[in-house]
Design a protein that fits this description.
Length: 260
């Protein structure tokens, strides 16, 4: 595991912290591999009920480090398709596929790969003044086209992708891209931990089923999406959490879910 990625599991929450604050947590290949390894482990660890991804220091993630990548210390595949598929998109794929809720806490910047990772997460919380952007075009790169059009209006997506503009977290919150903003009285990490801790004690098996259905429904017809919903419902009523939820409702008490 890279020292530039810190991993800790406490109270059902796996916290993955980008730890390269001197470079605004810009990603290089060893960090990408370490993040993927942490996500793979969290996906199968029964202790983990929810995941938090955050950044140490002043920013969440300023994107890929185009200087470090491809050096002898951080080699890349020679095949161009493998090079870019194995980069930050491999993190995005894992986040989308994991059947556990994932929260991302954004301070200062979520740019390029950082914004894509945040967009893949289930809930984004941010500082009001944090900035989001996909400035790939400013480096002559075509990227960022998979998630943003699903999360934002088309003309805003075009503006961010074609011009390389940034928007503030307040703007992103107004558009529904960001779920919640921190305040002067609450640091963004504290807000994120409050939210992820709530998820970790919830019916996380049901959440995982809903997450899969939501992600699949984006490309399905209304009828097929409804069929996917029914399948998720059937799966959820077979869980111990459903039995506990029903029992708690009957006895008028708070449910004690175990994510099973």
């Amino acid at each position: 595991m890279s020292e530039r990625v810190l991993v800790e599991t406490v109270g059902g929450v796996c916290t993955i912290s980008l730890n390269r604050s001197d470079a605004l947590n810009a990603l290089e290949n060893s960090m990408i591999a370490a993040i993927n390894a942490a996500l793979d482990e969290a996906a199968v660890d029964e202790r983990v009920r929810a995941i938090l991804i955050r950044g140490e220091g002043r920013a969440f993630c300023a994107g890929d480090d185009l200087i470090d990548m491809g050096t002898p210390e951080h080699p890349e595949p020679s095949d161009l398709h493998d090079k870019y598929a194995d980069g930050y998109p491999s993190i995005v794929r894992r986040i989308l596929e994991i059947h556990k809720p994932i929260v991302v806490a954004v301070r200062k910047y979520a740019l390029g790969a950082g914004f894509e990772i945040a967009l893949a997460a289930d809930i984004i919380v941010a500082e009001p003044t944090a900035k989001f952007g996909l400035p790939f075009v400013l480096r002559g790169i075509a990227a960022g086209t998979s998630l943003l059009p699903k999360r934002a209006p088309r003309h805003l997506a075009n503006r961010l992708l074609f011009l390389g503009d940034m928007i503030t977290a307040e703007e992103a919150h107004t558009l529904g891209i960001v779920a919640a903003l921190s305040s002067e009285d609450q640091d963004v990490d504290d807000l994120a931990r409050t939210m992820v801790n709530r998820l970790a004690i919830s019916a996380t098996r049901a959440i995982g089923l809903m997450k899969s259905a939501l992600n699949a429904s984006v490309t399905l017809s209304a009828q097929d999406a409804l069929a996917m919903q029914v399948g998720a419902t059937v799966g959820s009523v077979l869980t111990n959490d459903f039995a506990e939820g029903k029992l708690a409702f009957t006895h008028r008490r708070d449910a004690q879910y175990e994510g099973k």
